[in-house]
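F.,

This is the one I mentioned.
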């Protein structure tokens, strides 16, 4: 059964929206596509279509005996400074996501505060009520290009100041965000509290007798 079939049939315990944001050309679509397809890290050999709006991709994860379905919103790399309102609108209700910059493009690192400000306005849950986030430094120039313009120490410091962790591996960043969201799931998972975390109840949880007892008495 495909993940899209799972969406239609409610075949999961929890679902959430996570966003992938950052300047145009930092590698968001490449990284997300290979994550969702379980491919090895992209080497840049497959040219993705340039994104003019938002793409959606769905992936399921098994964690702690529960099935999580994540709808990723690959938000096109608009100019976040002049279009922060439309970025915020696209991110609405998300449980957080991954902010990507390109280590060889300092401007993409310098705009991270603008990306975080726009996305945190409309994402929910997490430790601060504005979503759970991880930072990814991609290298579109490839390892062969030599020194990165943005150092690992700079990226780690920025991530720490903003309450998240820094990764060069996109998959690890997604698993970190999923762990943060999972840690905020209340016990019992009362649906209205879950919604405040950007998490919805799926059929597999709704049909679980212990969930029904805990929530409905
Ligand atoms: N060498 C290399 N190229 C990459 C990598 N990630 C992305 N690219 C290339 O960078 C360009 C922009 O990538 P894309 O995923 O469209 O960026 P987006 O605008 O952030 O979605 C494309 O030509 C990719 O092939 C990478 O890890 N290594
Ligand atoms: Mg893209």
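My design for it:
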């Amino acid at each position: 059964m495909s993940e899209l079939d799972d969406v239609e049939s409610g075949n999961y315990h929890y679902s959430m929206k996570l966003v992938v944001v950052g300047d145009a050309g930092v590698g968001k679509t490449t990284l997300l596509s290979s994550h969702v397809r379980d491919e090895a890290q992209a080497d840049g050999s497959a040219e993705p279509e340039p994104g003019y709006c938002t793409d959606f991709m769905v992936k399921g994860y098994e964690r702690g005996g529960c099935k999580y379905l994540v709808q990723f919103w690959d938000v096109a790399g608009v100019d976040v400074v002049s279009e922060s309102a439309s970025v915020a609108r696209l991110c609405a209700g998300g449980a957080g996501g991954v902010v990507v910059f390109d280590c060889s493009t300092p401007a993409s690192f310098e705009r991270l505060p603008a990306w975080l400000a726009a996305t945190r306005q409309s994402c929910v849950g997490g430790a601060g009520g504005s979503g759970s986030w991880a930072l990814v430094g991609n290298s579109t120039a490839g390892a062969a290009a030599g020194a990165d313009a943005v150092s690992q120490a700079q990226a780690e410091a920025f991530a720490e100041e903003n309450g998240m962790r820094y990764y060069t591996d996109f998959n690890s960043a997604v698993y970190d965000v999923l762990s943060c969201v999972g840690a905020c799931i209340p016990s019992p998972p009362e649906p209205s509290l879950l919604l405040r975390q950007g998490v919805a109840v799926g059929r597999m949880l709704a049909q679980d007798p212990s969930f029904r007892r805990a929530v409905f008495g």
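The longest strand covers residues 54-63.

Talk soon.
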